[in-house]
Design goal:
Strand content: 15-25%
Oligomer: single chain
Number of helices: 16
Largest sheet: 7 strands, mixed
Helix content: 25-40%
CATH architecture of the largest domain: Alpha-Beta Complex
Number of strands: 21
CATH class of the largest domain: Alpha Beta
Radius of gyration: 24 Å
Distance between the termini: 42 Å
Structural class: alpha+beta
């Protein structure tokens, strides 16, 4: 599975005259910043948050998230769950595609089988580490797609069989990988052309593509009048615009070119000092975990050293996370001492976030110079070395990352005599290539959650869990994760929840990563815009409820 690890800001190639710029139907009154170009509008190919957002603007799945982040019916008017929690029967409402075809259960069967058969990067989410759809892993590995645990006994009934109960399965149905595709329409197109233009893309959701060319900086959407819930959609349409930097975003907001922008660092501080502008500033949790990845591969340049747990612990405890967020990130980010981000994954019974206790692992994750130096002394004795020369790679597409790694370098070198950090900035594509081919010592990583459960993070560090291979393997850790997904703990909510803490302790005791902070979204929203829903996982912005005052 490949995910976008750090937000990418690309050059604006086209600027609209203002937020009231004309669209294909002349009704656009809202302009929204995108941080990167859409990669694909094919739900089987998309891997980035930008693509997922635009797909979700135009297509409904079985379920959708309400304003509070709870899964509620969308195309599924209702659903039933078997007593053992392993069979879901969804009953579809009357809904149409934008070409007039009815949305049927077969549209879901086709899409799900296709995703698994093609084994695209996000097919994993259907398998036994997440959704546990019956036989999904076998199909992904080349098995017969007809054996996938999905069926359509009639056009309005979609049945899903699971290998194990999944407590958050309904919320997964909000994620675009689980959305339907009109098979007849898809098969009528040239190979590879689906989703590349308004003419090659069908909507069943609140909006339709009005203007879209892959790779360009602007996308225009218009209201889908045939949407099943069209009466509740107030917005006639809106446009997206890719913006090159936080500075440009702030300028665009000030001059009225954009109604919604994301800003960071110094721009946030500037806005806070402006009495009028600050009234438009909103800060939301993002769910993005930023951390240092330690490459323990003995074949790597310096991994003979980083395979030593005490050296990893020394580096982790030498970093002042509070200083990072307040002096360098400066967007409302929160210092984090757990492998799961803060304000994320609430317990369904207690309502408490999984990582609410940020001191539970303070014996191994903290800012404690004396403790970090004790770990370093042990590492030097065990490795027979007094000096360590380590390379830290990072994507230099944004200025925030540069400030953060410079601060980390300064703190580590000041607090750990004999440890040198060499910073290696690189373009996003080069960074991704290096981090996925294990060509690094340390890497600054930003991981985005796909769904609102701790497993979206904890599965990353299983032996076969992620393309960022820290080269760490722990049989006990693997077993706990397996037990929580398809094993004995899958159906026992409390036991599963507690076991995930046990797994997290193993991970952090071994300093597989050094958690740094949970990022935040600092957003400027025009005062005449209300009703945008922000979520910490999956589709992070939803515009269905937007009203213009």
């Amino acid at each position: 599975m490949i995910k976008i690890l750090m937000a990418t800001l690309l050059l604006v190639t086209m600027i609209f005259a203002g937020c009231g710029g004309d669209s294909a139907d002349g009704n656009v009154k809202l302009s929204v910043m995108l941080g990167s170009n859409v990669v694909s509008l094919d739900s089987g190919h998309a891997t980035d948050s930008t693509s997922f957002e635009v797909i979700a603007d135009c297509i409904d799945g079985l379920m959708q998230l309400d304003s509070d982040g709870k899964a509620i019916p969308a195309l599924a008017e209702s659903f039933d769950v078997s007593e053992d929690g392993k069979t879901y029967t969804f009953h579809l409402r009357d809904a149409k595609w934008s070409n007039g075809d009815p949305v049927t259960a077969e549209d879901f069967v086709f899409a799900w089988r296709r995703h698994c058969q093609k084994a695209e990067e996000y097919a994993y989410i259907m398998g036994d580490t997440v959704a546990c759809v019956k036989n999904a892993d076998a199909v992904i590995k080349g098995g017969d797609p007809k054996t996938l645990g999905v069926s359509a006994p009639d056009p309005k009934t979609f049945v899903v069989e699971l290998d194990a109960p999944v407590s958050f399965f309904p919320s997964l149905m909000c994620f675009p990988t689980f959305y339907p595709i009109n098979e007849k329409f898809y098969n009528s197109l040239d190979e590879g052309s689906y989703g590349t233009s308004p003419e090659t893309f069908l909507s069943n959701g609140a909006f339709m593509l009005a203007n879209y060319i892959p790779g360009t900086a602007n996308i225009q959407l218009k209201k889908n009048d045939s949407y099943w819930n069209a009466d509740k959609i107030s917005l006639d349409g809106f446009q997206y615009q890719v913006v090159s930097s936080s500075d440009n975003a702030l300028t665009s907001f000030k001059n009225g070119t954009l109604n919604l922008v994301s800003i960071s660092g110094n721009q946030v501080e500037h806005v806070k000092k402006d009495a009028e502008l600050s009234k438009n500033l909103k800060t939301f949790p993002s769910g993005y975990l930023n951390y240092l990845s330690f490459n323990q591969d003995p074949k790597n340049h310096h991994a003979g050293a980083l395979s030593n747990v005490n050296l990893r612990l020394a580096i982790s405890n030498a970093i002042d996370r509070e200083s990072l967020v307040y002096n360098y990130v400066m967007n409302g980010a929160v210092a984090t001492y757990t492998a799961v981000p803060v304000e994320f994954a609430p317990n369904a019974k207690t309502g408490k976030f999984f990582a609410e206790d940020q001191k539970q692992f303070s014996d191994v994750v903290s800012f404690n110079v004396s403790k970090s130096q004790e770990f370093l002394a042990k590492a030097k004795a065990e490795l027979g070395k007094d000096n360590f020369d380590l390379n830290l790679i990072y994507s230099n597409d944004g200025d925030a990352s540069t400030k953060i790694v410079q601060a980390i370098k300064s703190q580590v070198e000041e607090n750990l005599p004999g440890v040198k950090i060499n910073l290696q900035p690189m373009p996003k594509a080069e960074y991704l290539s290096n981090v996925t081919s294990d060509n690094y010592d340390l890497a600054l990583v930003d991981w985005t959650p796909d769904y609102n459960d701790p497993m979206t993070f904890l599965t990353l560090w299983t032996t076969s869990g992620c393309e960022i291979a820290e080269h760490w393997s722990n049989a006990e850790y693997d077993k706990i994760i397996s037990d929580c997904t398809t094993g004995d703990l899958a159906a026992n909510y409390d036991a599963r929840w507690n076991a995930m803490y046990d797994a997290e302790k193993i991970l952090l005791d071994n300093a597989v990563i050094a958690p740094l902070y949970t990022d935040a979204n600092a957003i400027l929203i025009s005062p005449n815009v209300e009703g945008i829903d922000f979520h910490v996982a999956g589709v992070t912005r939803v515009f269905k409820n937007v009203k213009l005052k």
